[in-house]
Amino acid sequence: MKRLIIGIGGMTNGGKSTLSRSLQGIVPNSCILSQDSFFKDDSVVPVDSHGFKQYDTLDALHMDRMMSEVRSWVQDPQRFMLSHGLSVQDSSVFALIVEGFLIFNYGPLNELFDKRYFLQIPYETCKLRRGSRVYMPPDPMGYFDGHVWPMYLKNRKEMENMVQDLVFLDGTQKREDLLAAVYKDIQQMFTAV
Ligand SMILES: Nc1ncnc2c1ncn2[C@@H]1O[C@H](COP(=O)(O)OP(=O)(O)OP(=O)(O)O)[C@@H](O)[C@H]1O
Ligand SMILES: NC(=O)c1ccc[n+]([C@@H]2O[C@H](CO)[C@@H](O)[C@H]2O)c1
């Protein structure tokens, strides 16, 4: 049995969840693991000198728990899918789509990817899209420029020092064009097995 682990990383609001969900819809025996499901409880996330909660860092995430889930999939993809309520088709290839804003910054996870995509969008687009979303807890006033964007720049620099083979995607492209490009790429990996 062949197992493929696809990383859909990228900036906040780059379109990771959207692309991952579309991919899962057309890639047989695939399932999604979202880094956002592993945020620590608000009560343990520290605050900086401006009063901003430090969410945009690996320290705010239960990466140990996320790794356990990945390992559980690697051990038995079929059992993993069935236990998550997903149906399994007759195929020798299984795919895990891991999506999140800091998936390539965490070494033990980064080393497991067969393919790494990074969705990027300009500052203005990012700020606009983020402003139309409601997080839990909601972003306080000034959070984007005071925490989210500076942390993105820091995390990105760190990622680029660690990871070489990223495929950058323009997150302002049409959803269907992004899906088609990634699907084509992935299909080649499936047929190469
Ligand atoms: N290709 C696209 N073109 C225009 N808008 C898009 C595109 N993809 C996603 N969006 C929109 O951008 C917003 C963010 O998308 P999505 O939730 O997929 O991003 P994300 O990277 O998972 O965000 P985050 O992880 O920060 O929550 C949503 O409102 C979504 O509808
Ligand atoms: N999901 C959460 O618990 C949560 C809480 C507060 C902020 N966020 C934001 O999610 C983004 C990553 O998708 C980061 O930019 C966080 O600020 C998430």
Describe the structure concisely for a colleague.
By secondary structure, this protein is an alpha/beta fold. It is built from 7 helices and 5 strands. The protein is globular and about 55 Å long.
Describe the structure.
With 193 residues, the chain is an alpha/beta fold. It has a single domain (2-191), classed as P-loop containing nucleotide triphosphate hydrolases (Rossmann fold, 3-Layer(aba) Sandwich), CATH 3.40.50. Helix content is 42%, strand content 17%. It is built from 7 helices and 5 strands. Strands 2-3-1-4-5 form a 5-stranded parallel β-sheet, sandwiched between helices. The longest helix has 20 residues, at 143-162. The radius of gyration is 17 Å and the shape is globular. The N and C termini lie close together (10 Å). The mean pLDDT is 96. Adenosine-5'-triphosphate (ATP) binds next to α1 and α7. Pathway: Cofactor biosynthesis; NAD(+) biosynthesis. It catalyses: beta-D-ribosylnicotinate + ATP = nicotinate beta-D-ribonucleotide + ADP + H(+); beta-nicotinamide D-riboside + ATP = beta-nicotinamide D-ribonucleotide + ADP + H(+). One of its GO terms (cellular component) is cytosol. Belongs to the uridine kinase family. NRK subfamily. GO terms for molecular function: ATP binding; metal ion binding; nicotinate riboside kinase activity; ribosylnicotinamide kinase activity.
